[in-house]
Structure prediction request, 65 residues.
Amino acid sequence: MSIDLVNSENIITFPRPCTLCESRKNVQLFAGLMVCESCQKNIIFANPDHFSADREIEVESKAQD
Prediction:
C-alpha cells in the first residue's frame, strides 16, 4: 500500500472563484470566464447589445413554460 502526500499542487478547490472578484458564490462559465452571478449581471448591463439574443431565447422559453 502506498502513502501519497497531499500538497497544494494536487488539490482542486470547488467551486472555482470568480475571475473578476474572487467570490465563490454561484460561479459559472459565462462568455469564456468563470464569473459569479453579480459580475455576470454587471457584464450584461454594461454590454446589452452583445447578449440580447440570449435574453430573447430566455424570454421565449419562459413564455412557453
Notes: The mean pLDDT is 77. The radius of gyration is 18 Å. The longest strand covers residues 28-30. The CA atoms of residues 44 and 51 lie 6 Å apart.
